[in-house]
Amino acid sequence: MRVPSAAGTVDIWWHTGAGTTEAVSGRGLLGHAVAVHHSRRAGSVALVRDPLGRPAVRPGQGLPPLRLTAAHCGPVTVAALIAPAPQPDDRTDNDTDTGVDLGIDIEFLPGPPAPVLLRYALGPTERAALTGGSAAAQRDGFLRLWTAKEAVAKALGWPLLRTLVDVDISLRPRPAVARIGKDTSPRGWYLLPLGLPGLPHTVTLAIRHRDRAPVLESSWSSPARPPSSPAVPAASAWPSPTP
Length: 243
Description:
The chain is built from five helices and eleven strands, in the order E-E-H-E-E-E-E-E-H-H-H-H-E-E-E-E. Helix content is about 20%, strand content about 25%. The chain is globular. A four-stranded antiparallel β-sheet has the order 1-2-6-5, covered by helices on one side. It has a single domain (about 1-85, about 95-210), classed as CATH 3.90.470.20.
């Protein structure tokens, strides 16, 4: 699947395992996607993590700067990659900043989310957007919000806990990033819900086209500092140790 965007064309890949919990790793699917995209031998592309913990192509392989992301839910793994338009200075693969942030997430729920999940996963405005609808509508709305939050977390290289506190998503008139920290008008973001043929899962792709290099900022809107405990799940961890 190919998705056009202002930042360039995004290639979407997915794989469904044979069993109910069997899944190919996000890293494995990303490596395969990059190899196919650039006509390389399968298994020949080496991946690393960038300074924010996001998957990246290891420099020195003769590949252009790419932005990569992956996620999985049960036996289904999704991956996305983008090769932004060449810069005027003709950067090589020694330059890892593409000027684009990319994240993807996939989730599935058979029924409406539990009240405790709504309370801890969503902000007041997001919860209010889900009231008054049917159980199916509440489930679908929650999954769209949750996958958008996770996709933004992966794009930014943020821990999931921080994203639950510092990212708000609006669903109407279309999915959008409504707040990041103290910024109530985030610029450059594009959220795209995706459907995978034959699968009931909810998938959201998040793209940010930046006009300047990323800043390793640490300002939270909440009083707490960013979590440092290794027990806190990193949203950018891939592949996840469990489905």
